Structures are given as structure tokens and as C-alpha cells.
Amino acid sequence: MSTTVRLRRWQQRALERLDSTATPDFLAVATPGAGKTTFALVALRRRMAGLPGRRVVVVAPTAHLKSQWVQAAAEYGLVLEHGWRPGDGPLPADVHGIVTTYQQVAGAPRAVARVARGGLVVLDEIHHAGDDRAWGQGVREAFGGAAWRLALSGTPFRSDSHAIPFVRYAMDEALPDFEYGYGDALADRGVIRHVDFPSLDGDMEWIDAEGSVRGASFDEILSGPLASQRLRTALSVEGEWLPAVLDAAHARLGEQRRRRPDAGGLVIATDQEHARGIADLIERRHGVAAIVATSDDAQASERIARFAISTDPWLVAVRMVSEGVDIPRLCVGVFATTTTTELFFRQAVGRLVRARRGDGDLVASLYIPADRRLRAHADEIARVRRHQLVTSGHRRVEEVDLEAADSPTEQMSLFAAVSATPVGSVDALASEVTGPRTAPEFIDDDGLLLELPPLPSHRAEADTAVDQGVAPPLQRRRHLRSLNAARAADLVRHANLSHASVNAELNRLAGITRITEATETQLERRLAVAERWLRS
Questions:
Q1: Distance, CA of 310 to chain centre
Q2: Which DSSP state fits 471?
């Protein structure tokens, strides 16, 4: 593990601001792709030096992001357990902390509080603490006793009646302690890519919820429910509109892959059936197999992780990669979902913006329906609108209308798509505000190199192992637990005893109370005891 990290200029400024903040809470708002995770992990390393022995708790929005945090933390020598459960008891001495989700925190706040008491907390995409009243209450109860709380946000979140815990407000507006917006990142160059928003009009015909035949192009102004039905019709895999957009996106991806062979594309689908239908369309029309990741698939996170390091061209997902998932090779997207809120749209854009060395003047493309709501969101991004985080009472009229249109209580019993015909060509939304598309400029400035303080002494042995390139600590731990379980099963058969009796005796002989609390050394000792018992 390297003890030196090269920071981006905004990360250096944010760390300086953090160091000068006397309160235990800090909210950093930075545009997607800017490097919030790196900032947070460097901040943790520095804070741990001043508060040795404190546990770390990272809260992520999804289970997939838990794994991503564990992997990122390992690069900084931090050992975080993402399989922790409330009933596991104290953490092993050679683990720095845990990664959990907002949902898990809400379900067991007191158990999380025992880990976090006096410790260091990172709240990733903090706006999720306001998604549900129980989530916000759980966060407040779980982390009220922490010594330090770092909140992160990359996208503006819709206001509602739930104020976000540990965030300062002026009137109804949240006050970030440090803010780094989309415009700032574009100006710095080398941080994020420019994004174009090619769109396509169409003539759609459908049967509405009352059984009446309707028809409209995207140019026509419709009420919220009818606008959603028109969009749903356009996105039907049985129509002609969606295949036309997929063809254009695939051609664009082909252009990108001639420059960067690992360039990837993402289609955000409406539901599982829709995702599989889109994957079939891509394979039939272009002869390539798309990776499908949906929430009903237990292997979805593993599929996304494999896609991230592969050269496969297409990933089709339902919400699984809308926020936080880091796949830098993505540069072409298709917005094929009926979710039209600004928050979700910005999350989708965030999957395509991360710049890489060697990209040159590569411009990412998110293909969108010519729906007025989506074009408005795209235009706001193109105009580099300042992000705002607000509480109740100041919601834009458009957002209220969007939510009503997308309400799950909408009557769709008689709805049926009849036809969707593309009109015209796929045109990119132009903007005079985004500025010239100059190539990213990666600055190698020795002044941005930061020496990381050493980790607490009880991790010295694991740090050396990382430097020598051996298996990461959590991977070794899982392997040792697996071996221990296998030997216990062998002993059940060998000694003709129950599982409970065998495990209790192995724990006693190894000097541990529970296997979930065992360090690597104790797991190795327990395994040796089991093997001696088998040989006896």
C-alpha cells in the first residue's frame, strides 16, 4: 500500500477546509465523478491518526456500493467488513470498521450505535437519510454518539418533510461546508467529461387508462399522466422508436471503441422485463450479448463488477447503477426508463462523466427521449446550473408534476402501447454555456502529493501484507472462515457430535467467544486446532 496519494486540487482545498472545521460534522457536495470516495478515505486516514483505536462506519445507499467501498478502502490499508450483521457482536481487533446501508441502519440503529460510539462515520449520498422518516431517525440514533461525521453528496436531492440529520440549514436550504459543482469540474479539466444529450422525436399511439386511443409526438404538451403514457409507449421494445435509438447509440459506442477498445455503454431500463427485452434487441440487431443487471438477480452486483473490468460493450440495468457505481469506461448511455425526476436523471448522467487518462477530447453521450421534462433536465446540466439542497416548502412546480405523473398509484389497467415511430434524426442538445470541448488536462503537480499518516499500530502486520501483494485482509478472513466451517463439518462426522458442540469446543480451544469476533491469527489458531483434532 502506498503511503502517498496524489490529490485533485478540489480535494486538497476540501481537506484544508475540513481541517479548519471545529464541529464534528462536515458536508461535502461534489459533482459525480469528481472523486468523493478518494477525498473521504484520505480524510479518514488523517482523522484516524488523531483518534487512534476508533471504529469506522461507512453508510452507502446500496449493497453493491458496500462492496465498492470495501475495495476502495483496501487501497488505503483500511479493512472494512461489509458482511457485518447486528447480531455479530464486537468486531475483530484487526478490522477497522464496517460498511452498511441506510436501510440496515434504520433496521438496527442501536446495534450500529454500539460500533459507531466515539468513532468515525462517513455518510455516502446523505440525501438518502431523508428518503424515509425511519431512515433519518435511524441515522440520528445510530450516529449521534460518533466523534466525527463526514457527509457526502453528489446530486441535488428532492426536498420533503424530513430534514437530513447532521446537516446545517439556513432557513430551508442545506449549507454544504464545501461545494464543488459541475461547472467547477469542467473548468478544472481532467476531472469530468463533457456530456452531450442526443434526443429523438417520435409519433406515439397508445390506449390510455380509460381505454381511449391517444396519439401524440414529443412536441405536444400533455398532462402529467398522458406524458408518462406517451413516454412508456416510446420505450416499448415492440415499437420502432427504441430500436432506432439503440441503433444510434450502438453506432456511437462503436466510434468510441475504435479509439478506446474497452469503452462501454449503459442502458437504464424501466423494469426487469424491459431490461431483458432491450438486451434481446441489442443481440438481434447488433450480434452482441448485453450484460443484464436487475434487482431480482442475486448475482447482479457480481455481474456489474465483472462488467466494470471487462471489455463487454453493453450493460442493461434497472436502477442498479443509477448512483455511485464507479465504471469509468462507460461513455455512452441510453435513458430508457419512465422515471423522469431530476434527481434520477442527474444520477444517470453521473455514470458517464468520469474522465480517464488517454481519453483525449472524448465526449460522453446520453441518448434521451425528446420528452420536455428530460430535455429540461439536460438543458439545466448543459447550463451548469448550481446544485441546491433544500428542505420542505421550496419544491419546484415541475418536480411536483413529475412525481404525480410517475406515481405508482396511476391507473394503468387498460394502458397498451400501439405504435412508436421515430421522427427525424437523433439530434444533440447544443449549449452555448458548456464551452469548447477541449481535451482533459491531467495535472501532475508535486504540490498535490500528500503523505498519509500511518494506520493504528494493530494493523502494521496487515499493512505489510498489502505492500507485499498478498491477498487482501478481508479475502484472507473469508477464506479462513470457509476453511474453519469445512473442518467443523468434517469433525461433526469424525467425532459424531453436533455442529453446536464442535464449534463450541473449537472456540474454547482457540480462545475465542464467537467466530465473528476472531482476528486472522485466532482463525488460523482455530483451524490448526481442528486439524489436530481430525488427526487424533
A1: 19
A2: -
Return the closest-CA partner of residue 187 out of 33, 350, 384, 352.
384
Which backbone phi and psi does 367 adopt, to 5 degrees?
-80, 130
Taking a C-beta distance cutoff of 8 angstroms, is the pair 354, 328 a contact? yes
The answer to whether the Cα torsion of 343, 347, 353, 355 is positive or negative is positive
Determine the Cα–Cα distance for residues 88 and 94; give it in Å rounded to an integer. 15
Q: Residues near 531 by Cβ (< 8 Å), separated by ≥ 6? A: 487
- Given the C-alpha cell 440529520, which residue does it identify? 165
Residue 385 has a pLDDT of 38
Phi, psi of 433 (to 5 degrees): -95, -30
- Distance, CA of 300 to CA of 217 (rounded, Å): 36
DSSP code string of 212-232: -EEEEETTS---HHHHHHHHH
pLDDT at position 430 is 39
DSSP 103-123: HHHHH-HHHHHHHHTTSEEEE
Continuous segment of H or E residues that includes residue 302? helix 300-309
3-class secondary structure, 80: strand
User: Binning pLDDT at 50, 70 and 90, where does residue 140 land?
Assistant: very high
Q: Is 84 left (phi over 0), alpha (psi -120 to 50) or beta?
A: beta
Measured CA distances, 153 to 156, 176, 204, 323 (Å): 8, 9, 37, 11
Q: What is the mean pLDDT of residues 500-528?
A: 83
Any idea which residue has 380509460 for its cell? 210
- Least Cα distance to 349 among 369, 331, 373 occurs for 331
Per DSSP (E only), the strands in 154-255 are: 169-170, 173-174, 178-180, 195-196, 198-207, 213-217
- List, in order, residues 6 or more apart from 183 with CB less than 8 Å away: 384, 386
Give dist(CA 227, CA 370) in Å, integer: 11
Residue keyed to cell 465504471: 327
3-class state of residue 392 by DSSP: coil
Quick one: CA torsion of 384, 388, 392, 393, rounded to 10 degrees? -60
DSSP 128: G
Helix (H) or strand (E) holding 418: strand 416-428
SS (H, E, C) 138-161: HHHHHHCCCCEEEEEECCCCCCCC
Mean pLDDT confidence for 292-299: 80
Cell numbers found for residue 174 = 442545506
3-class secondary structure per residue, 452-467:
CCCCCHHHHHHHHHHH
For residues 387 and 373, what is the distance between their CA atoms, to the nearest angstrom? 18
The pLDDT value given to residue 447: 59
Which helix (H) or strand (E) is 285 found in, with range?
helix 272-286
What is the Cα Rg of the chain in Å? Answer: 25
What share of residues in the chain are helix, strand, coil (percent, to 5)? 45, 20, 40
Q: How far apart are CA 434 and CA 506, in angstroms?
A: 64
Distance separating alpha carbons of residues 429 and 156, to the nearest angstrom: 22
Report whether 359 contacts 328 (CB < 8 A): no
Three-state secondary structure along 348-368? Answer: HHHCCCECCCCCCCCCEEEEE
- Is the CB of residue 466 less than 8 Å from the CB of residue 77? yes
